[in-house]
Specification:
The structure holds two protein chains of two kinds.
Chain A: H1 3-36, H2 52-62, H3 73-89, H4 108-129, H5 133-164, H6 169-174, E1 179-180, E2 184-185, H7 195-208, H8 233-258, H9 269-297, H10 303-332
Antiparallel strand pairs in A: 1-2
Chain B: E1 43-47, E2 59-65, E3 68-75, H1 83-87, H2 95-100, H3 107-120, H4 128-156, H5 161-181, E4 190-191, E5 194-195, H6 203-226, H7 229-235, H8 243-248, H9 254-258, H10 265-268, H11 289-312, E6 332-340, E7 343-351, E8 357-363, H12 365-376, H13 382-392, H14 396-400
The chains are: A mainly alpha, B alpha+beta.
């Protein structure tokens, strides 16, 4: 098979992963939130409600696609694609195992962040094109958030890149193989140098992927449904799906950067390399579970507080930490 | 955006406004128009009547500069059902069913106010047990209503969990109210002359069992919402209704007590069994949303305390005075009020001696709180508007009647 064919297959595989993941994650979200809230979540469709989200997707596909009269038609139609496609692109550099990855990019970390940072542009387009004041406010919030948090998100992970000496996600995972003192895994989360890094990363990535408590652009109790208010049918489906997909990518990035990616130190190497993708998925899903846990518990932060946190705290702290960890890394080695 | 907004609230989309758009309220940062040929425009957005967080059908027109509210106009009346007029065509024993649908999540209080007003014109001696059952029903109902407020306040602030945790406890209380009155929300339990029915056997044990867990549950609620730093940052210093504003707008209930004014109808003009009960009136200090939150949380504890006292000291005897089947109070004009969940709920009753009220006026405290919104919203962000509306605990069924 030629290179283009393999490339197309890989894109299809990423798309399939994204769609299946979306369906599974929505079911998981409903179940997790349900049990956090003393409810059961879906129970009726399929075994323990497992077919509920499949049916909901089918419902979304068959629904009438409404385009309000006052919208900017081109932007309105383009916006869901602008949100969905970058989200799909971000899968390209994720290392599911040492062999399972779409591409092996040397700037994989940078590439993934770049892909994710295109998403808010689509959100802004959706908000602007909808000719709805709530949507506009949602879109503007997305833009403001994006500008404020892109910087600390990138800055926060720089110490890791400095230590590893590479922005290749695979290399970063390989640097975390092995154990400390024979028991503890050598994951970066257990390195005190990266604790502030991790905190900044968590906050900034929650903001970037528009998750509670920073789901500013949607903010259903304030902005009705924010940028997606006027969307229906599968256009809404795409917006919704990419939100879950972004959550998955952010969690996968966190696993890659801090929790050793596909590796597990206590297992022999051949087993790890065979089970790599499974270990990676389990870790990622644990991360997503934590995100859902936060979503079920926390109230929403106000927009000006989000902005203040970003500009006044996270950016200065991450800059200082880059200098500090640079010195530490230099002295240590 | 669509249509832009040449008109502002102040120049008259809906008549005279309070704020001149040329002079923004103090503390409002506003980009000067005309820098680099760019001008800024105020946006008028319609919050409600179909907005997820306006507690039913409240409509607030807000004029925003970016996200900051410059002026606000509260528009009510979307839930008007003509309760006051309908009461003129009901017999006295049937008015309660209408009042239940006023403030529909704490119907007992309005029923009680109406019963108290009618009794003033009836020369009837209400049995002691009826007084105690009235207080019991009121306090249980107060907790159910505060739990709804607690849940929806959490929703307004963006949290989802609190609502369902509030519902868990409310379910238990609604079961108790159902056992007591036969209905979960539309009670018609408190009637002129007494109450509909005595407590069923075994209900006191059920209430005690609930009280045994409720203190712990309240701590849980308080930690889940009030203990959350994000929530505190959202409510502290937000929506300040100071003492003078609260008094000027005629606020009552937790909104007034949050500003530190010690006024509670249960203490000021005692009725039912309240003179015999031992309870405190929680007070706030600055009158911000955080104070109102704390006052209501403390009120739930006080209510639980009163319920315990009421169960322990429940007197024996009849629960209903001898009242004619068709009530014909003597002609006259009276006013009776109770401390309902949201403040002073009053019934002004004019009787001409026939079996129907000649005129009934229902004083709903939420209407006053809704009016005060116009004064306190400017200068806040859109996200705060939602929190402030939630913190004043307005009930549209009562505002619109």
């Amino acid at each position: 098979m030629n290179a283009i064919g393999i490339g197309a297959l890989k894109v299809l595989a990423a798309l399939a992963l994204m769609l299946v993941n979306g369906v599974v994650l929505i079911y998981m979200l409903r179940k997790v939130l349900g049990h956090l809230h003393l409810r059961l979540g879906p129970t009726h469709v399929g075994w323990k409600g497992t077919l509920q989200t499949t049916m909901d997707v089918l419902k979304l596909v068959t629904k009438e696609d409404i385009t309000p009269r006052a919208v900017d038609r081109w932007l309105f139609r383009l916006a869901p694609a602008m949100v969905f496609v970058p989200s799909l692109m971000a899968y390209a550099a994720l290392p599911f195992s040492d062999s399972w990855r779409i591409t092996n990019l040397d700037a994989g970390l940078l590439y993934t962040f770049t892909a994710l940072s295109i998403v808010p542009i689509g959100v802004l387009m959706a908000g602007w094109a909808s000719a709805n004041k709530w949507s506009l406010l949602g879109g503007m919030r997305a833009a403001a958030q994006q500008i404020a948090y892109e910087v600390p998100l990138l800055l926060s992970v720089l110490p890791i890149v400095m230590l590893v000496g590479s922005a290749n996600l695979g290399t970063i995972v390989e640097a975390q193989q092995g154990t400390l003192f024979g028991v503890l895994p050598r994951w970066f989360i257990l390195n005190p140098l990266f604790w502030p890094t991790f905190l900044i990363f968590v906050v900034a990535s929650l903001v970037e992927s528009n998750q509670t408590p920073f789901d500013m652009s949607e903010a259903e109790s304030e902005l009705v449904s924010g940028f997606s208010t006027e969307y229906s049918s599968m256009k809404f489906g795409l917006l919704y799906l990419s939100e879950f997909s972004n959550g998955f990518i952010i969690s996968a990035l966190g696993v890659t950067l801090f929790f050793g990616g596909w590796t597990l130190p206590w297992l022999p190497a051949p087993v790890v390399s065979a089970l790599g993708p499974l270990i990676f998925m389990i870790k990622t899903y644990i991360g997503i579970f934590v995100m859902m846990w936060i979503r079920g518990t926390y109230p929403r932060v106000r927009i000006d507080q989000v902005m203040q946190l970003g500009w006044q705290r996270l950016i200065p702290i991450s800059l200082v930490w880059i200098v500090f960890s640079g010195i530490v890394i230099k002295v240590w080695s | 955006m669509n249509g832009g907004s040449e008109e502002t609230l102040a120049t008259g989309v809906l008549g005279e406004g309070r704020h001149d758009p040329g002079t923004p309220p103090a503390g409002l940062r506003r980009a000067p128009a005309g820098v680099d040929g760019l001008t800024t425009e105020h946006l008028i957005i319609n919050m409600g009547p179909q907005h997820p967080s306006t507690h039913g059908v409240l409509r607030v027109l807000v004029e925003v500069d970016g996200e900051e509210v410059v002026a606000a106009e509260v528009s009510v009346g979307y839930l008007h059902r003509g309760i006051e007029k309908l009461a003129e065509y009901r017999r006295y024993d049937a008015v309660g069913t209408l009042l239940d649908r006023g403030d529909y999540i704490s119907g007992m209080m309005a029923e009680l106010a109406f019963a108290l007003a009618t009794e003033q014109l009836m020369d009837v001696e209400v049995p002691r047990k009826a007084h105690w059952l009235r207080s019991l029903a009121s306090e249980i109902n107060r907790i159910t209503s505060h739990l709804i407020w607690y849940g929806t306040f959490g929703l307004d602030a963006g949290g989802m969990g609190q609502f369902l945790y509030g519902m868990r406890d409310r379910e238990a209380l609604l079961d108790i109210l159902e056992a007591l009155s036969g209905s979960r929300m539309m009670f018609n339990y408190i009637r002129p002359g007494g109450v509909l029915a005595d407590m069923p056997t075994g209900l006191d044990a059920k209430i005690r069992a609930f009280l045994g867990t409720f203190d712990q549950y309240l701590d849980e609620h308080d930690q889940l919402l009030g203990g959350n730093e994000i929530f505190q940052a959202r409510v502290k210093g937000v929506g300040v209704i100071d003492r003078s504003t609260a008094l000027a707008f005629g606020l009552t209930g937790s909104n007034l007590r949050g500003a530190g004014v010690d006024f509670d109808v249960r203490k000021a003009r005692p009725y039912a069994a309240y003179p015999e009960l031992d309870f405190e009136v929680p007070l706030g200090t600055n009158g911000d949303a955080w104070d109102r939150y704390n006052v209501r949380m403390a009120e739930m504890r006080q209510s639980a305390r009163m319920i315990g006292q009421l169960i322990d000291g429940m007197p024996e005897g009849p629960h209903m005075a001898k009242v004619p089947r068709i009530i014909r109070p003597r002609a006259g004009e009276v006013y009776a009020s109770v401390e309902s969940t949201r403040g002073e709920t009053g019934i002004h009753l004019v009787s001409d001696g026939t079996e129907h009220p000649y005129r009934m006026h229902y004083r709903g405290p939420s209407l006053f709180a809704a009016q005060a919104l116009e004064e306190i919203l400017p200068g806040h962000l859109i996200a705060d508007v939602v929190v402030i509306i939630g913190s004043t605990d307005v009930m549209l069924g009562e505002i619109d009647r």
